[in-house]
Amino acid sequence: MNATSSMGIAAAATTVRPCCRILAARLFPKCPRGAAPFPMCPRKSPSPFPKCPRRRRRPHLAPAWIRAAVAPAADAAAPGRRRLSTEEEAAAAEVREETAMEREAWGLLRGAVVRYCGSPVGTVAASDVGAFREDPLNYDQVFIRDFVPSALAFLLKGETEIVRNFLLHTLQLQSWEKTVDCYSPGQGLMPASFKVRTVPLDGSNEAFEEVLDPDFGESAIGRVAPVDSGLWWIVLLRAYGKITGDYSLQERVDVQTGIKLILNLCLSDGFDMFPTLLVTDGSCMIDRRMGIHGHPLEIQALFYSALRCSREMITVNDGSKGLIRAINNRLSALSFHIREYYWVDMPKINEIYRYKTEEYSQDATNKFNIYPDQIPSWLVDWIPEKGGYLIGNLQPAHMDFRFFSLGNLWAIVSSLTTPKQAEGILNLIEEKWDDLMGNMPLKICYPALEYEEWRIITGSDPKNTPWSYHNGGSWPTLLWQFTLACIKMGRPELARKAVALAEKRLSNDQWPEYYDTQTGRFIGKQSRLYQTWTIAGFLTSKMLLENPEMASILTCDEDLELLEGCACKLTKAGRTKCSRRLAKKQVLY
Ligand code: GLC
């Protein structure tokens, strides 16, 4: 690929986005040239987080089969590496033969790989050639959240290069400058997706170059900023380090700065009183208006997970101590808040049913002034005797009682819930199997918004009609997150049952994006076929079930120290009211 002059890049950027003050080099990073493995960091000023002495880490001990699988690729890259031992070779040979369906899935996943200047950097959202003839929308782009299951499948297979490239290239796309007038994203925001474009080099029609073009929501339907992208990026960075043992990536100055920029954006002060993140509607997997503005569970669970992962990865020095303190304080407040106020089960709903309202005092039981009439009629019959779940959202005088799968599953995976609550969520899923799994795992949320609620909350969205798409549709990609939660809680049999359900249909149905109807029987009305995260989610689930110890690259255990720490500066008398004391009790609950 031809090298690009900086003048050329600047000219291209000016043509594409004339009024934005985004750095041209960030918008169009250069192709890797010569020996430099990645483009130069486009930052104008020196990094605010200087490089510090490296922490010593214990060497990573991946199981023999993984080391065996990783080694050949690494051998090719570094000729000086040692050869495999006989034991490792035997372990590699022991790997079960793939089924025809798995082979098909691998073929499709590899076919979805996107290359930038010759190197793999991600996977397209879908490879639905039929639908693309009409309009590909943005399904031909690499979505950050969609790539996570692809990355895991590749990592578990021992193919690590694509994930490393993805992590470094998306870092280059991260927003560096806060501008207001042109609706540019805030500093630290990661794009929702990016596309590799071929553009004429220096205005010539003979020479072309490839550029990475990110979308921060400025082209997305509804113009929603993807709050979850940066959180997923952090979670994936940690998983990459844990599985490959290559911690040098996360220790790089530019990567450390990237983590800190994301965290600064999340931890900055606002007007909000809650430890949860305040976001607009559609800022995550559900990227359309669905009444999830405020403090939706999905974002809180990913936020908690990203904070836990970052705490492990940030290099400790004088410059980072303040940030680590802020992370710990937020973690402890966040876990208390979610465990205490988002959790519902039969006794809790009965308590809400009997709430007094309009309580003005620090000791109010009904702190958020929830009117009992808000308890929806479906929930009265639906909530089982055994088990419970985290509600979808909590705001003043508002509890969103819908069950959102991703948030609940990720709360288990990251230990945002207590161990007892995590068990309770899986018990509820088991008890409500027909409602949540039906013919295809897994309902994105339950139940659907109907009639007036649908009209008012979705804005009469024809794509989100009841039991379709985000409004109670079934999304097979959620299978890998369910599998992860089941493995963490020692219930792999539940995940196996769900995988078996998916296995019956996915290949025949051409790997749809989502299914419709109350029981998930029909391929979704506007569902893409050959949706990459459906394919990758299936493969990741299968591989995790076969190697359950690998789940630890994504999970976090309960951290009792978090429950000890208290951020509040209350007087001795006030401290008796401090929520962290209660938090410690919760673990036993
Ligand atoms: C839809 C989904 C979103 C996904 C995108 C690409 O917009 O709502 O979560 O990232 O498609 O698959």
UniProtKB/TrEMBL annotation:
> Which SUPFAM superfamilies does the UniProt record give?
Six-hairpin glycosidases
Recorded E.C. number(s)?
Answer: 3.2.1.26
Q: Which enzyme class?
A: hydrolase
Q: Which Pfam families match?
A: Glyco_hydro_100
Q: Which terms in the Gene Ontology molecular function aspect does this entry carry?
A: endo-alpha-N-acetylgalactosaminidase activity; sucrose alpha-glucosidase activity
- GO-annotated cellular components: mitochondrion
A Gene Ontology biological process noted in the UniProt record is: sucrose catabolic process
> What Gene3D superfamilies is this protein classified in?
1.50.10.10
InterPro entries in alphabetical order? 6-hairpin_glycosidase_sf (IPR008928), 6hp_glycosidase-like_sf (IPR012341), Glyco_hydro_100 (IPR024746)
Alphabetized, the UniProt keywords read: Carbohydrate metabolism, Glycosidase, Hydrolase
User: In its keyword annotation, does this UniProt entry include Hydrolase?
Assistant: yes
So what does this thing catalyse? Hydrolysis of terminal non-reducing beta-D-fructofuranoside residues in beta-D-fructofuranosides
- Residue ranges of the TM segments: none
Q: Which family does it belong to?
A: Belongs to the glycosyl hydrolase 100 family.
State the function annotated in the UniProt record: Invertase that cleaves sucrose into glucose and fructose.
What protein does this entry describe? Alkaline/neutral invertase
